[in-house]
Structure formats: C-alpha cells, structure tokens
Amino acid sequence: MGDIIGDLNKKRGRVLGMEPAGKLQKVTAEAPLSEMFKYATDLRSMTQARGSFSMKFVRYEEVPAQIAQKVIEAANLEKEKEQ
User: Fold this and answer.
1) What mean pLDDT value characterizes the chain?
2) Which residues contact 34 (CB under 8 A, 6 or more apart)?
3) What topology is assigned to 2-82 in CATH?
4) Among 8, 27, 43, 56, who pairs with 51 as Cys (CB 3.0-4.6 Å)?
C-alpha cells in the first residue's frame, strides 16, 4: 500500500481514503489524467500483477504554473516547426 500511495503522490495525486474490500484494500484517489498514462503497467509492477484500477472524470483544475510553462513552450516549438 505504501508504494501505491507514494506513486500517486508523485503523480500529483490526492489520496481521499482507503477501505477494506474483502481480502483487498480499495484506495480512492484523484490524479490528473496526464499523469495516469501507463499507470496500469506501474500498478501491476508494484502489486505483482494483482492490482487493478478504474478512472472517471471528476473536474477540471488549473495546471500548476511550472507545468503550464512547459506546455506553452512545447506548443510554441511545435508552431515554429510548422512555419
């Protein structure tokens, strides 16, 4: 469980709670979609192929300034390549 929660925190995620689900543990969390690509592979690796997850859209949030700057720079580079 510690590895999973640590990984979610690393992905700018927020753990909202944990609850037992039979012999398993259910972790409820929110994380940006951009950080969740390849998460299935990461989760399987951390849980020896026993973990699974599901996602659903909850809301939009403002992107942190440092990440927004990287997105803007990448878009500007792409625009320059097109010209």
Assistant:
1) 93
2) none
3) Alpha-Beta Plaits (3.30.70)
4) 43
